[in-house]
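re: the backbone from monday

yeah here it is again, tokenized this time
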């Protein structure tokens, strides 16, 4: 997968999380999975259409999602992933992907994104039958957001 397709998602994750949740982000070791199978139980999928066709899947542990939602809501305690907390985490993923799409558009790669779709619970069925680039983004001190990127034909 071309770096020009991936780098916008790395920088967008760091920028948006810093802006929306006031948290620092560091990129972990990038890897490759043969199929897109999220590692954690909170999964948010956003499809990319246009010059690139594929999916971006954000995966995080439920306690990480609660802590990030709390940070986004100015420290309001989040003891469960209720509708408000889910909305916050979905919006974070939507903003990251939208920001990355804007960065791709400035490179002349025209894309659009679909609304986010959240699933809670371990995924037992792959979301795509294509290799996925896995980018662990370490949100300090909350935990890891795993960013899985897969594009058809790349």
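seq for it, each position gets an aa:
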């Amino acid at each position: 997968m071309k770096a020009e397709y991936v780098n916008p998602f790395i920088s967008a994750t760091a920028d948006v999380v810093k802006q929306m949740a006031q948290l620092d982000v560091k990129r972990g070791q990038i890897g490759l999975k043969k199929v897109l199978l999220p590692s954690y139980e909170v999964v948010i999928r956003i499809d990319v259409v246009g010059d690139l066709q594929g999916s971006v899947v954000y995966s995080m542990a439920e306690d990480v999602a609660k802590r990030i939602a709390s940070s986004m809501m100015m420290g309001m305690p989040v003891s469960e992933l209720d509708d408000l907390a889910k909305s916050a985490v979905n919006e974070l993923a939507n903003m990251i992907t939208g920001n990355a799409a804007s960065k791709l558009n400035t490179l002349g790669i025209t894309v659009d994104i679909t609304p986010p779709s959240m699933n809670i619970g371990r995924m037992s069925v792959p979301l795509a039958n294509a290799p996925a680039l896995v980018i662990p983004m370490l949100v300090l001190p909350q935990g890891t957001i795993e960013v899985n990127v897969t594009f058809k034909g790349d």
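The chain is about 35% helix and 30% strand. The first helix runs from residue 3 to 21.
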